Amino acid sequence: MEDIIVRYVSRFILPFVQLYGLYIVLHGHLSPGGGFSGGAIIGASMILYALSFNLAEGSKKLSHDVSSILESTGALIFAGMGLISILLGANFLANGAAGFPLGTPGNLFSGGSIAIITFGVGIKVASTMATLFYSLIEEEHSHEHH
Amino acid sequence: MRKLLVLFFLAVIMVVMVATVVEMPTIGDPANVTNNEVPRRYVEDSLRETGALNVIASILTDYRAFDTLGEATVLFVAIAAVLSNLKAH
């Protein structure tokens, strides 16, 4: 799709959408939202990029190798925090009981492992949405060529 | 005959569902069985125990983090299945 209005508007709002998604992920332990909703916003911004510009440029920004690394990183952050809790002598995925610093409630650095787990979930959801969209669209394109 | 049977079963399902809805507790009633010590602990102690202002985040990623890990695993398995299916073609 080549439409100059769509391209200019999305070029203008994309940074704000991505910043907003990042804000929701990073403030998951302070304000409404969290890893799933913020990751969905970031993933939607990548889908909007591919829809308004052409698909080849969109896939270049997030290749299959990068997206598979991001997927695994998100899951590994989550499970790794649980294993760190075990290493610190508490239950799997324990937070305060494992001795993670809880900080002052309301600060950005508070809540122990919650912020880190939210960040991992955010990475994972964003790359899942974008990868699903890109691979389904690519499939359609390759069918058209054959 | 078949239509009558379908109508009969639909009527049975409707009776069961209406009976269930009638028996459901009213929303927001303090005497509900779901208003027990579990939500009270979340509301009263989650700030002290987790240090997170967002109670929902503290439930999702601290009290019930194992459930959320399962959700993330579902996402992971779903995308792995889709990609392996698409790549196979």
Account of the protein in words:
- The complex is a heterodimer of chains A (146) and B (89).
- Chain A has helices spanning 4-26, 35-52, 55-61, 64-87, 113-145.
- Chain A has one domain.
- By secondary structure, chain A is mainly alpha-helical.
- Helices cover 72% and strands 0% of the residues of chain A.
- Chain A is built from five helices and no strands.
- The longest helix of chain A has 33 residues, at 113-145.
- Chain A is elongated.
- With 89 residues, chain B is mainly α.
- In chain B, 78% of the residues lie in helices and 0% in strands.
- Chain B has four helices and no strands.
- Chain B has helices at residues 2-23, 37-50, 55-63, 65-88.
- In chain B, α2 (37-50) crosses α3 (55-63) and α3 crosses α4.
- The radius of gyration of chain B is 22 Å and the shape is flat.
- Chains A and B meet through α4 and α5 of A and α2, α3 and α4 of B.
Write a brief caption for the model:
The complex is a heterodimer of chains A (146) and B (89). Chain A is mainly α.
* Average residue-wise pLDDT of chain A: 86
Instruction: Report how far apart the termini of chain B are.
Output: 46 Å
CA distance, first residue to last residue of chain A: 21 Å
Note the main sheet of chain A.
none
For the sheet with most strands of chain B, the description reads: none
Count of the separate structural domains of chain A: 1
Number of strands of chain B: 0
Strand elements of chain A, count: 0
Question: In terms of structural class, how would the helical and strand content of chain A be classed?
Answer: mainly alpha
Helical fraction of chain B equals over 70%
Residue runs with pLDDT of under 50 for 5 or more positions of chain A: none
Topology record:
The complex is a heterodimer of chains A (146) and B (89).
Chain A lengths: L3 H23 L8 H18 L2 H7 L2 H24 L25 H33 L1
Chain B lengths: L1 H22 L13 H14 L4 H9 L1 H24 L1
